[in-house]
Amino acid sequence: MTAAASASSTHKLASTKEERKLRKPLIERKRRERINNCLDQLKETVVGAFHLDQSKLEKADILEMTVKHLQNIQSSKMMADSKVGLEAQQRYSTGYIQCMHEVHNLLLTCEWMDKTLGARLLNHLLKSLPSYLDILTLLFD
């Protein structure tokens, strides 16, 4: 490598460092602007959710209230999901029992069906009646 090429690469390296030094404050300012804009949006949401006045809230207050609000949403969703799960389990069980009843009626009308085989089939269906956890697994997987 020649002295001129070495000086040229050293100059490029120095100018790149200077360029980074100049860009860093701009990038940091934009990052802080984004954070503050998001905090302002959160503040509006929190003020509406908690029915607060538009008083000056600190950033930490906004974040804490946002966490509480999200936790409230999550817990109410979990309660709603469990209610839906229970209703679904009841509907599934009712449908299963209705199907068993139809099979029983069909077996009664089939003269060619062996009675012990029919009894074994109904016994199997009864034993296979899914539990609550089985139904939840079927519904939510």
UniProtKB/TrEMBL annotation:
Source taxonomy: Eukaryota, Metazoa, Chordata, Craniata, Vertebrata
GO cellular component, one term: nucleus
Subcellular location: Nucleus
Database matches in CDD domains: bHLH_O_HES
Ranges where the record places region Disordered: 1-25
Organism: Patagioenas fasciata monilis
Biased composition (Polar residues): 1-13
Residue ranges constituting the BHLH domain according to the UniProt record: 19-73
Main localization of the protein described in the UniProt heading: nucleus
GO-annotated molecular function: DNA binding; protein dimerization activity
Protein name, entry field: Transcription cofactor HES-6
UniProt-listed Gene3D superfamilies: 6.10.250.980, Helix-loop-helix DNA-binding domain
Segments forming domain Orange: 92-125
Keyword DNA-binding included in the entry's annotation: yes
